[in-house]
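hey
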């Protein structure tokens, strides 16, 4: 069916309903009308999005980027992880608001709204399932090895979310006997942890 045929069909149907409202009754017809109304509402949203240049999935993506999940689990490194999943490269913006705008524009231009929504949903699910930072020494030593095997974006995401507290970073450094001073700042801790995590992981990978 062409869209012109669809328009004519809907116009004929609308006229039939408008001409016979007092004759229309019964549960089966009411249920069918309710289903038609819901389907029409969904189609109207997609139609407006398409005609407005949004494309499929864009409206949902915009809502997801403003959601509580985004505030809790989507710092800039996380958005870069999602962007790489969609496009194979990170964003150029260095601030989160600008990065969100850039990401939306890239998705719109590539008409990748539905793919972006699916990957962002998957990212939110995984982020929500992440366990709390480890507490005992052995677990903290294993954590250093795990961090060493992450990509740069994934590592930045860890340090901006799950491992963002300075107290956690100090515990991680102390458990692995890393050379950091008691008054080390967050940036220094991250640099040292990243260096030794990469080195430890490389040593394990080389032995394997």
């Amino acid at each position: 069916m062409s869209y012109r045929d669809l328009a004519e069909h809907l116009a004929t149907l609308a006229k039939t309903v408008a001409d016979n409202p007092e004759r229309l009754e019964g549960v089966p017809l009411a249920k069918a009308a309710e289903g038609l109304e819901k389907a029409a509402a969904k189609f109207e949203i997609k139609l407006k999005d398409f005609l407005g240049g949004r494309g499929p999935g864009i409206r949902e993506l915009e809502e997801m980027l403003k959601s509580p999940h985004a505030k809790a689990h989507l710092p800039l490194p996380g958005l870069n992880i999602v962007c790489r999943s969609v496009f194979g490269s990170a964003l150029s913006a260095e601030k989160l608001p600008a990065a969100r705008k850039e990401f939306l524009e890239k998705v719109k231009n590539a008409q990748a709204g539905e793919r972006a929504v699916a990957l962002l949903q998957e990212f939110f699910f995984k982020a929500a399932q992440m366990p709390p930072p480890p507490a005992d020494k052995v677990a903290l030593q294993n954590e250093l090895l795990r961090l060493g095997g992450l990509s740069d974006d994934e590592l930045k995401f860890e340090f901006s979310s799950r491992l963002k507290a300075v107290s956690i970073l100090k515990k991680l450094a102390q458990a692995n006997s890393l050379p950091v001073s008691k008054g080390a700042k967050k940036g220094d801790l991250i640099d040292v942890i990243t260096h030794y995590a990469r080195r430890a992981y490389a040593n394990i990978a080389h032995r394997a």
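Residues 27-51 form the longest helix (25 residues). Residues 21-52 form one domain.
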